Amino acid sequence: MSPILDTFIAPPCDEQIETLYQDEHLLLINKPSGLLSLSGKNPQNLDSVHYRLVKTFPGCTLVHRLDFGTSGLMVIALNKAINAALCQQFSARTVTKIYSALLHGHLDENEGVIDAPIAKDPALFPLMSICPVNGKPARSRYQVVERCTRKAEDGALIPLTRVQLFPETGRTHQLRIHCQQLGHPILGCDLYGGLQFPGTERTPRLMLHASELHFVHPISGESINARHGSPF
Known about the structure:
Layout: E1 18-22, E2 26-31, H1 49-56, E3 61-62, E4 71-77, H2 80-91, E5 96-104, E6 111-115, E7 118-120, E8 128-130, E9 139-151, E10 157-167, H3 174-182, E11 208-216, E12 223-227
Parallel strand pairs: 4-11
Antiparallel strand pairs: 1-2, 2-4, 3-4, 5-10, 5-11, 6-9, 7-8, 9-10, 11-12
C-alpha cells in the first residue's frame, strides 16, 4: 500500500505569538492554537512559530514542538549552543511538561497512568497507532481537576472532565492518542475521536494547552518554572 500523502493545509492564523520571557539566550513563548511549530513542506503551510520568530531572531531554533492545534508554552533557543544544551535536557527527561485538557465523559478514577507504546505507520499518516510489538515506549499520567458539563447547541449537556496531563515520554501525538486509549478523547481532537460526539461538531479548537514547563537555564543554572493558564 502506498503511503498517504499529507494534504493538510493550515488555515490562516491571525493570533499573535505572546513572548513571556526573553534574554540573550532563549525565549519563552505562548503558541496560539492553529499555528504550526515548523513550516510544512507544502508552500501553503509556510506560516509557523519558527517562520515568524526567525525574522526577529535570526538563528533561533525550536527545542521542541507543539501540535498545530495545541496552544501553550514553548522554549526557543537563540543560538546553536543553547539549543544543544536544552535538547540534552529534553533527551534526558529532566524537563517537566504539564498540559491542561478537556476530555469527553467523566473519568472514573481521579488519577492514573496510560502506558501504551506508540508506532508510526506510513499507511495511516498522519495518524499514529498503539502497537505493543513495533511501538516505542510511551507513558503519560493524568490527574482530574474537575468533572463538569457543557451545553451543546441543541441544549443537551455534554459530560467533560478537566485534567492535567503529564507526559513522561515525548512521542508524536502522545497525549491525544493516550486519551483516546483511555476511552476519553480530548475535546476538539479531529484525529483521535474528539469530534465524534453529538454536540461537539462546532468545537473551535483542540482543547489541549501546554500550561507548565520546568527546566534549568543552560547559562545561569537557574530553575525556570514557567506557567501559563489554560484559555479554555
